[in-house]
Design goal:
InterPro entries: FluC
Keywords: Cell membrane, Ion channel, Ion transport, Membrane, Metal-binding, Sodium, Transmembrane, Transmembrane helix, Transport
Number of helices: 4
Distance between the termini: 25 Å
Strand content: under 5%
GO molecular function, one term: metal ion binding
Pfam families: CRCB (PF02537)
Number of strands: 0
Helix content: over 70%
Low-confidence stretches: 1-6
Order of helices and strands: HHHH
Function: Fluoride-specific ion channel. Important for reducing fluoride concentration in the cell, thus reducing its toxicity.
Largest sheet: none
Length: 103
């Protein structure tokens, strides 16, 4: 679904990359909780967490998007995007772990 979105909005803000990385963080948190509780085997953490979600999310694109924002002179947006991405990613991972603990 998110892959069908353009990489940036008309204003140049990289919202699709943000959405993919936040979703990936949520799924990784969920995976870690399910592995930790023994619902999924340890191999699922490596295969799904590192393999699938590592390929789904992208730190290099995140970095390139920040560089692009800085290149346009949008330092404030670059900072907001970086801080927001980390905060939303951590929040999403925490929600995933909480959900996994309840399943």
């Amino acid at each position: 679904m998110l892959a069908a979105l353009p990489l940036t909005t008309r204003t140049g803000l990289p919202l699709a990359v943000l959405g993919i990385n936040v979703l990936g963080s949520f799924l990784l948190g969920l995976t870690l909780a399910l592995v930790g509780r023994g619902v999924w085997p340890e191999a699922a953490r490596v295969a799904f967490g590192t393999g699938v979600l590592g390929a789904f999310t992208t730190f290099s694109t995140f970095s390139t998007e920040i560089d692009g924002l800085l290149g346009r002179g949008w330092a404030g947006w670059a900072l907001a995007y970086a801080v927001g991405s980390v905060a939303l990613g951590l929040g999403a991972a925490t929600l995933g772990r909480l959900l996994g603990a309840r399943l």
